[in-house]
DNA sequence: ATAACACGCGAGGTGCGGGC
DNA sequence: GCCCGCACCTCGCGTGTTAT
């Protein structure tokens, strides 16, 4: 661990003790090994979540926007578009990033080849795709097989999206997800207005606006708990809207809930509603002075091996 | 050795019914 | 009405096994 991480780990340790004394016991980390591992996971989560901000502060090559090159990176591309004030294109890239994810083997190849129409000239920019979503779906339908295997190159979804289908017409396929996303956004008149409306409804409270959008985003087909949370968190981190997770949002989660169960009850199997675990986790985030996403993320990773610090992969 | 195949599974999603 | 738990669905991936 780097020096500043150690300083932070020490502070976190103190705050955990205060939480145990004043709010709720943490039987899951009574064991010293488990406690060290949990703190380690928090440090790791913060590092990953800060990564986006750090990248934003460095200069980014223009080729990151180009799906025809190996440099294509949807997050860096989104940062570049945001820097020139193109909120629509930046947010659209965040959507693609969350929908397809980053595959362990093929990286962003699937996003690049959907966004870049398999290298056939034009790009499915927000302007193009939102103008005629049906045209996109027909293109997707025609290129199902090509997207999967053209040139002997495998293109896959990321681990978080392993249940997602590339299908253009199925209710839970990519076509429907893209189409419902476009409708959701254009119904408000674009991303800028969509986010502005949410902030206005929330009196500019970043957490309330997040909660508002989290509910609204049910309109996007196949975007469940994880995708909504990741999308809106990323929109916030990139500064595309001044929003921030209001809660760990445990509704329908498995991994993070298991982590919370273990932390707050000491057992993986125990009674106790996920609503209760959710509010305890939210409270923990506040006490540790970290973003809700940090707790959500670290609980999930910690629970996989509670006494053994494993570096996050994939 | 490499490809084709089979199988179990997962930081998931949706819908429904029961309990409060 | 909210919240919970459950059953059932989904689909590509990793892993191991069998066929070339």
Number of beta-strand segments: 0
- What is the H-and-E element order? HHHHHHHHHHHHHHH
Beta-strand content estimate: under 5%
Structural class: mainly alpha
Return the average pLDDT rounded to an integer: 85
Number of helices: 15
What does the overall shape look like? globular
Percent helix range: 55-70%
| Low-pLDDT ranges | none
Number of domains: 2
Spatial gap, N to C terminus? 21 Å
Cα radius of gyration in angstroms: 20 Å
Largest sheet: none
Q: Can you give keywords for this protein?
A:
mainly alpha, AGPT-Pplase3, DNA-binding, 2 domains, 0% strand, 15 helices, Alpha-glutamyl/putrescinyl thymine pyrophosphorylase clade 3 domain-containing protein, 314 residues
Describe, in plain words, how this protein is organized in 3D.
There is one protein chain. This protein is mainly alpha-helical and 314 residues long. The chain folds into 2 domains: 3-55 and 247-304; 61-209, no CATH class. Helix content is 59%, strand content 0%. It has 15 helices and no strands. The structure holds a DNA duplex (20 and 20 nucleotides). Residues 34-314 form the Alpha-glutamyl/putrescinyl thymine pyrophosphorylase clade domain. InterPro entries: AGPT-Pplase3. This is Alpha-glutamyl/putrescinyl thymine pyrophosphorylase clade 3 domain-containing protein.
